[in-house]
Amino acid sequence: MYLHKVEGPRSVALPDGSILTHADLPPANTRRWVASRKILVVRGVLYGLISLSDAKKKYGLSDEEFNGWVSLVAEHGAEALKATALKKYRQPKGERE
């Protein structure tokens, strides 16, 4: 079995006891960002599987977009990343601080 060389750890343990690996991350050509893919990227960065700069480069994310995902998860949990939760968890631009 051949293992590809990767920067950083091959896997990380999450607080719930599950293991997150590079194979679990979405493909680099992902264009449809569903909540499950967003949370994998957020967890990958927060737990050190992939660096923020690598994630932004690999997935074409902006600082604002990624930080938005992180703040939604921190405030409301992974459910807030769903497109159907836009009105429930996100403030309109005019109401932001």
Automatic annotation (TrEMBL):
One Pfam family linked to the record: DUF1153
Q: What is the name listed in the Swiss-Prot or TrEMBL entry for this protein?
A: DUF1153 domain-containing protein
The source organism is Ruegeria atlantica
